[in-house]
Amino acid sequence: MNKFNIPAPLLLLLIVFAFTTFGCSQSSEYKANENAIELMEEQEYTKAIQELSTIIDGDKNYLPAYYNRAICYSYLNQNKAALNDLNFVISKQEYEEEAYLNRAILFENQKDYKAAIKDYTHIITLNPKNIRALHFRGICKYYSKDYTGALADYNLAIQYGLNSSGVFYNKAVALDCLEQFANAIKYYGKAIHIDKNLERAYFARGVANLKNGNKEAAIADIKQSEKLGFKKAAEALQEIG
C-alpha cells in the first residue's frame, strides 16, 4: 500500500482590523477607513482599495489605510502590492505584531517558508506566547520537513492555550512523519473530539492505525472518512483489501 501524505491545511490570510491609532478624535481619515472596512466586510475589495488609496494620497503616513489595503490586495491575489504595503507599515512600526503576522502568512501562501519563519520568529521574540505565530511557524517548519521543529512549536502553542482541531491535527501529522504512530493516533483523536466532521483526521488516523498494526481500527476510521466525503478513502479501502 502506498504511503499517504496528509499535509497540514493551507492558511488563508487573516483579516485583523484592530490597529494602533493616535488621538481621540475621529478624523476624516478614520471615517474613510471605517467605510473601507465596511466594504471589506462585503468583500468589495476593489472599492475598498480605492477608498484606502484616497486616504493615502491625502496622508502618506496613515498606517491603518496601508494595512487594510494590504489585506484587500491579498484577497485579490495581488501579493506584491500587499507585501509593499505591509513592508511600509513595518518600516514605521516594527513592533506591530499583526503586520508581521499577515506578512508571514503572505510569504507562507507563496511557499517562501524561510521568509515566513523569519517573520513568525520575530513575532515570537516580541511575544513568546503568541499562539498563532507558534502554530503557523510550526506549519512552515513542517513544509520545510523540519518535523521535530514543527512539533516543538505545536507543543508550545498548546501549552500556551491553543485548543483547536487544527493544532492537534497538525501535531499528529508531525508525529506521523516522525513515525511515532501511537502518539499520532492519540492527537488525531483529540482533533476529532473537537471536530467530529474532520474527515481528513479520520483518514489520517486510519493510515496511522494501519502503520501501527491495527488493521481493524484502520478500516473503521477510513470508512468513517469516506462517509464524511473524503475522496481518497474508497481507493485506500480497496488497497487495504
Summarize the model shown.
The chain has 241 residues and is an all-alpha fold.
Q: What order do the helices and strands come in, and which of them pair?
A:
Elements: H1 28-41, H2 45-58, H3 63-75, H4 79-92, H5 97-109, H6 113-126, H7 131-143, H8 147-159, H9 165-177, H10 181-194, H11 199-211, H12 215-227, H13 233-240
Helix pairs in contact: 1-2, 1-3, 2-3, 3-4, 4-5, 5-6, 6-7, 7-8, 8-9, 9-10, 10-11, 11-12, 12-13
Describe this structure in words.
The protein has 241 residues and is an all-alpha fold. 70% of the residues lie in helices and 0% in strands. Helix 1 (28-41) runs antiparallel to helix 2 and helix 9 packs antiparallel against helix 10 (181-194). It starts with 27 loop residues before the first helix and ends with a helix.
